[in-house]
Amino acid sequence: MKRIQHYIDGRMTGLDSTRTAAVFNPSTGTQSAEVSLASKADTESAIQAAAKAFPGWAATSPLKRSRVLFKYKALLEEHTDEIARLIASEHGKVLSDARGELTRGIEVVEFACGMPHLQKGEHSLNVGTGVDSFSMMQPLGVCAGITPFNFPAMVPLWMFPIAIAAGNTFVLKPSEKDPSATLRIVELFTEAGLPDGVLNLINGDKEAVDTLLTDPRVQAVSFVGSTPIAEYVYATGSQHGKRVQALGGAKNHMVIMPDADLDQAADALMGAAYGSAGERCMAISVAVPVGDETASLLREKLLSRLDGLRVGQSIVEGPDHDMGPLVTGQHLDKVRAYIAAGVEEGAELVRDGRELDDQSGGYFIGGTLFDQVKPGMRIYDEEIFGPVLAIARAASFDEAVAMVNAHEFGNGTAIFTRDGDSARQYCEQIQVGMVGVNVPIPVPMAFHSFGGWKRSIFGALHVHGPDGVRFYTRMKTVTARWPSGLRERTNHYSMPTL
Ligand code: NAD
């Protein structure tokens, strides 16, 4: 059985770990590897390697650091197929989607290549007579990242390229469900010329996470995952004096106005609800058509498209399927249980993905559609994280806005309309961090920052873009006055007498 190890101080280690977890191929339901689970001591040795590498890396000039990132970007591009296959074979998303994920991650590396510019700080001349003031954006030290299963390449790449380009060193703890792609992208950074110890990876679970959250050498923690763990990471890390950004779960609504192009809206919903089997924090899981006529027309268009939804293996010869399996058997059971709960609570099950005929042993479920879903039902209130779309009808624009704003999550949302005024009002009134206008999944580009509102985030700063640079640097502001000295002294031969 293949053993997936840790990567500490520039080499693989962890064969002697006593605790391991099984890694599966979700397309077949068979175990493909086992992953070492780091002990407290393993985690401390990764922190130690990062602490040791920090002074040298922080003293390396920003331009030299960013040259390593340029090489890293080229290597990631060269290895795209290999990395995409690792993602597809452990996560279950189809290859084209895996390639897309990596591309979005590489865009953050491109952004981080500009760190010499981004980290320049500020300068004010003559804040008082003969007094100048300037700020320096200095690295923090050892930073840690804890990442979820659903983007094993992109989410880690939201974090460590920016942290490292800014002069920090890093310990990454990826998801134990699909660790191979993450391990490969970490290893490639060394090939690009990153000194040993600057980027370390430990595989593990709560034991590793708790060590990162409490060790005094760790200065900052970035977390992406479910809301209960995000809240725990934020509270524990903050209690131990660390800077923490913790991104949590989501329930993203798409409001469809009566004047929207309904074919365009239905096409967009198919990709946004069922792409990656709904295992995206920016997936649309609630469609909010305004008016019963809009709802009925939209429902018909979705049903006809669901007839053509191709579900199957994540890696195939020829064109990809539209969506692959869920990540684990346990997660499949959870999604099936949510569908049962929706029926019990009185929602109308229009298409039941549990009826998918599949004998492969993989964790497959078909696209599911509910209508007449209402706040208070578990399938509305909770994040399912599967290919289950709920239609929650609203009578008016104001009712739609109120519904979205009342939800505990506020990650992403979209409005589909041809009316500029509705779109503008929506953007202004909605209590959500990322908003799309006729764009179903409004993930900001690398040079903007990504983050939700409400219980989709804990901590003040979003990830990547300007907030990412702020998160991984601390500002020092110097106010300086230079008394007149040598410039005004002409006689260099006598003793200076001030
Ligand atoms: P998860 O919360 O189960 O795991 C995330 C990380 O936390 C993993 O590395 C895991 O090992 C660790 N972890 C799990 N339980 C822990 C515990 N008790 N103590 C300490 N650490 C623990 O999330 P997941 O199932 O891997 O990912 C799916 C979730 O991530 C969804 O809720 C999704 O919305 C969310 N997500 C959010 C964003 C965002 O940007 N807001 C992006 C991607 C995923």
TrEMBL record:
The keyword Metal-binding does not apply. GO terms for molecular function: methylmalonate-semialdehyde dehydrogenase (acylating, NAD) activity. GO terms for biological process: L-valine catabolic process; thymine catabolic process. The lineage of its organism: Bacteria, Pseudomonadati, Pseudomonadota, Gammaproteobacteria, Oceanospirillales. PANTHER family: MALONATE-SEMIALDEHYDE DEHYDROGENASE. Keywords: NAD, Oxidoreductase. It comes from Halotalea alkalilenta. It is an enzyme of class 1 (oxidoreductase). It holds the Pfam family Aldedh. The keyword Oxidoreductase applies. This is methylmalonate-semialdehyde dehydrogenase (CoA acylating). Its EC number is 1.2.1.27. Residues 18-478 form the Aldehyde dehydrogenase domain.
